[in-house]
# Entry
Amino acid sequence: MSAVATPTRPKAAKTKPATHQPSSVEREFMQGRDWAISCLSEAQSFRDHQSGESHRLRWVRKGEAQDNFVLGWVAECVGGPPALKNHALRGFCAVMSDYLANPASPIFPHAYQLPFAEFHGGEVGADGTRPTPPEMLEDAADEQIATLSAQDTEVAQPSTKWAVDALAATKAKIDCAYEALEDYACDNGTSLMWGVLTLIVGLQAAFTERTEAENVDDPRYGALADLHGDIDCVCDVIDAANEKPNVAILHAVNALLNLAGAGIEQACKAEIAKRKGEIANV
# Structure
């Protein structure tokens, strides 16, 4: 039997896969994409470092001109350096630089409707720009007090006499309110009056706790400010509970407690003003 030859299949020729050749349109698109990513990365860096350099308000930047970083990236997209002279584009990018580096949600348009000078350098508060808020000046004064204390260990610590005097005046009013209501309640007591007496006893306990606190001499955030808050809470409860009964003695007690709180507030304000004056004379 004769052997039958097995046919040999021809081998397919090996071909290299086609390499994609991007068009000029695609290359330009991808370049713009990368610039946008770089712009957002720069914005993230501002946020991470809590930098105010790109902020819209001059006082935040301490009088320096805004770092309008978005403008540089957008200018690359629309023609390079000549685009930097487009003032409409500069205004557009100034708002975007602030928002991307200091995001706020939701956005309030009026917060960005600021004068031309606000985005540029100069004296804070001049040319129609916003002045530094008073609370920021107070915080700066507090920081200066702390810095001076840290740098000069020989500087005497602020006196606590003002706090001791304020506490003594406060205690006298709280005790007077308690004694007046207790005397009245012994003969004419109601559940409401005894309840208010219980509140005042709690206030006396809070008073003792506050006087023993380490920060009793801090006029802004210390124990006296906390005690003022305690008194305000008790007064609010008495006001609400006595709205319908309208008992005269409870109005009198509340008036005494309000005077105690007002005395604390006045003492703290006076001490803050005194310390600011001492800083100014350093």
